[in-house]
Specification:
With 223 residues, the protein is α+β, with helices and mostly antiparallel strands. The chain has 7 helices and 7 strands. The structure holds fe (ii) ion.
Length: 223
């Protein structure tokens, strides 16, 4: 459904995923999405390590015309359980894949590195054949809401990049609300321990340093 989309960032892919892994910026950063879900929007990290964020617009009185139009035009989908007919659910799979389930379609996207301080977020939407004109209308409103969310995230990512590159930036202090970021970074440190070093290893030595760190960790845990 719709054309595949792509955003290019002048930023490390991990930083893009960090911003994408927490939802406390939704009330300020995404006025449309917040109008849709309000305070029902929640982030969770499941035991399996999979991240889940979701928000409901059941009985919600939207204020903005776009969100109002989406809610009003969306027809019922009988194949969905009643509990999922008003939910937007985002599943985050390590390291950088997100599957979003809307009542009217699904979206799959991934974030991947393309070079030093370069990354891409790209995805596509899929929908079941549905001849109802109101479903087509709802899907178009959905895309508009989500394109706004995307543009807003691009801006947030740029601001974060400027902050991280400024001389005032020392290190990250995570709040309890950033459990998604914490889970993502912990997993990275587990698999690629070299990312936990304060300074990058000398050029050409990254793989060897990483293997050495894995070996040392295995020795400690075996002892
Ligand atoms: Fe966002």
């Amino acid at each position: 459904y719709d054309e595949p989309w792509r955003w290019d960032f002048d930023l490390d892919w991990k930083s893009v995923i960090d911003i994408d892994s927490e939802g406390y910026h939704v009330p300020i950063g995404h006025p449309g999405l917040f109008d849709l879900c309000g305070s029902s929007y929640k982030d969770e990290v499941l035991e399996s390590g999979i991240g889940r964020s979701y928000g409901s617009f059941k009985d919600r009185k939207a204020k903005t015309p776009l969100v109002k139009n989406y809610i009003e035009s969306l027809p019922e989908s009988n194949y969905l359980p009643a509990s999922h007919r008003h939910l937007w659910i985002y599943w985050g799979l390590f390291p950088g894949i997100v599957i979003t389930l809307f009542p009217d379609m699904i979206e799959v996207y991934q974030v991947y590195p393309t070079g030093y301080q370069k990354s891409v977020m790209a995805g596509s939407c899929y929908a079941l054949p549905d001849a109802r004109p109101e479903m087509e209308t709802a899907r178009q409103y959905n895309r508009e809401i989500n394109m706004d969310v995307g543009d807003e995230d691009v801006q947030l990512v740029k601001w974060a990049a400027e902050g991280q590159r400024s001389s005032a930036f020392e290190e990250v202090l995570l709040s309890d609300l950033e459990l998604g970021i914490c889970a993502f970074q912990n997993r990275l440190r587990e698999i690629i321990p070299v990312v936990s070093l304060d300074r990058a290893p000398e050029t050409g030595s990254l793989k060897a340093v990483n293997q050495k760190m894995i070996k040392k960790r295995n020795l400690i845990s075996a002892a």
